[in-house]
Structure formats: C-alpha cells, structure tokens
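Kindly inspect this today.
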Amino acid sequence: MSFLSCNHNLPSSNAQYYESVDDIPDQVYEDLRCKKNLYFNPKYLIALEKNNNQIQFGYIVMNDIEGKAIGLCIIQLIDFHIDSFQDENQTFFEYVKCIGRKLRILPSDKPMKILTCGNTFVTGEHGVIVRQDQDKKKILKEFVKAALELVNSREDLKKEIDAYMIKDFIEESLSITDELKTEGFYSFKVEPNMIMRIDSDWQEFDSYLAAMKTKFRVKAKKAFLKSSKLKIEDIQLHTLDELLPEMTQLYKKVSNRAEFNLGTFNLNTYKTLKENLGDSYILKGYWLENKLVGFLSGIVSRNTLDAHFVGINYDLNRELAIYQRMLYDYIETAIKRRVKWLNFGRTASEIKSSVGAVPQEMTIYLRHRKHLPNKILSLFLNKIKPTEFNQKFPFKAK
C-alpha cells in the first residue's frame, strides 16, 4: 500500500499532501529555509526515501492564505513492536498486552502499524519544521488534524493504520507539544538523548583530554592503547559497494541489541548520503589486519555533529576498545569541525556520560486510532520508564 496514488489537497484547505520529496515544489523549501537544516533538505530526505522501501514516506505542507508554505511535516508508516519493551514492569506489560489481545484491540500476531511524524533513523525534533513567524502550537495541531483527515478519507488507510506517533521532543518543547494531549495523545519518555557541549577552548583533542579529571584521562589513554592495533580511516564513496555487506553485518549486531528500535536502516542509504551531502556526512572504518571490525557514521548540520549508526564486532570490542575509541573519534571530529554540540543519540548512556555527555530527556506522543484501544494503550505507556544509569562527571571544575 502507498499512502496515495497521486498528490492532492487534503480536506483542510491549507494542507497539501505529497508522496515523494521530488514532488514538493522548490518554493516550499525556500519558504521554510529547509536547505540550512539538513534534516529537511531534499538532498537528505531523498536519500532516506530512495533506499528504504520497507518504510512508506509521505509529506504534508501547510500553507498560509497567500499559498506560501508555513510548515512541513514528514510522516512514515512503520511497524511498531509492542513486545520489544523489556524492563522491571514486564509482568504488568504482559498483563496489559494479554487483556488488549483478548479484547482484540491489540494485534496478537503482527506489529502495530503506526503513522509516525518524525525521523525514524535519528533522535531529535526532525519531523516538523515551522516558519519562524508562525505559532508552532497551532501549526502542530493543524498537522495532526491533516494526518487524521488523510487517514479517515481513505477506507484502506483506516483498515491498515492502528495508531499515530509523534517523536522526539526535548523538555523545552513540551509547553507546545503537550497540546497534543487535547487530541487524544498520550506521552511517554524513552531512553534519553546523550548530548555533549563542545567547549570553545578545545582547539584540538589534547585540550579535551587536559580538561578531564585524571581518572577519566587515564581511561581514555588506555582505550587509545588498546585500539592502537586498529587502522582507522575515512570510508570513501568509491569503496562503499565493496564494504557494504560487511558493514551491514556489523550494523545488525548493534541494532539487534537496541531496546527501542523503530526500523531497520538500509545501509545503501550511505551511498546516496555521501553523494548528496559530501563532507557533511561522515563515515569512518576500523580495520584489524585488513578485516573490518567496526564503523561509525555521522552528520554535520548547522552547529551540531549527530552520531548516526555504528557497527561493531562485539567479539573484539573489549579487547580493542572499539566502541570507546569511536566515542573519542566522534569528539575529535566535533572539535575539528568547530561545532558547538555533539549528539550521541540513545543507548549506552553510562559509557557516553564517561566521555562527557549528559542526558537530554526525550518524549514521544502516541495515540491509538480507536477510543477503547487508546485507553488500554495509556495503561501500557504510563509504565514505560527510561533505564536508570550511573551518570559520570569526567571534567574538572572550572
């Protein structure tokens, strides 16, 4: 199923639906200044759309009375696996899922189909962009209404889609996004995004090391010693075809461990990202005696370096400190690129805090399409809590 067979106006007179990035008029990107934010740049969006056929993409553009774009919403149809949640409340989760399935309001043999607003592959607020002179709270509600109208206008969509999700929002945005609760959405917190401020005094990586407490500086040097056997090089576009099978295997070893995973990333996307974004997209490989044992990826957008997916040979990780070395390499790259922030993303919060990252709470909003399942879903979501970890403080006091 595709969302629509052709682009058309939604029942809301000021909303327009598009099923491909290429169909969106260039003027929309100009009105919203999308090209300055890579996550809304058509060169980035087309790379995701072109290479990830397992996800159905769509785009809603909101216009003002003069026909100028005032907002863009990126939507995808994804599979949401309720059974993937595992924590100390698992007994309660199983009870709620059992009740929901007995009442036939939660699927028993397949994942929920979720119409989601946001970027499936990156943590952060990358689902909606609103023109600066507009009321973000009002526009967000308009996007929600437009998405509901899109689904309700099609019988096949009403049968296919189970729920709606809007992700990921930082605490400072909740005064705006909590308005979604008036539209029947429930909020829940997921694993925090680990972020790190890059000190302007750090002119090179040694400056970063010098700012650390002795214990953590020793730990860093030990990781560099362990990883000294590795050959670390940037992965070039012309070598990607040869490396992609090995990279995919390494990526799957990491993604299979994730507690909260909204979709599998097709690594062929790297080729299009490198072609379209050039040096703004980072790929680095880690070799042991000509065998690829790890890789990292990242994107530089405005004043931030966002860590993207990594791949790791876990059999060698402890011996060679592969992952820990990657974290330091992200930091060194951020310093060299002169960005202000390094976004490490979710997972492995404690080790990321040991290199200087701090947690940034992330909130997701979810609503089942039907009223009764939505009430059952609220019981489930209320018990979801991010995993606690021991926050480290590696820097000397200034």
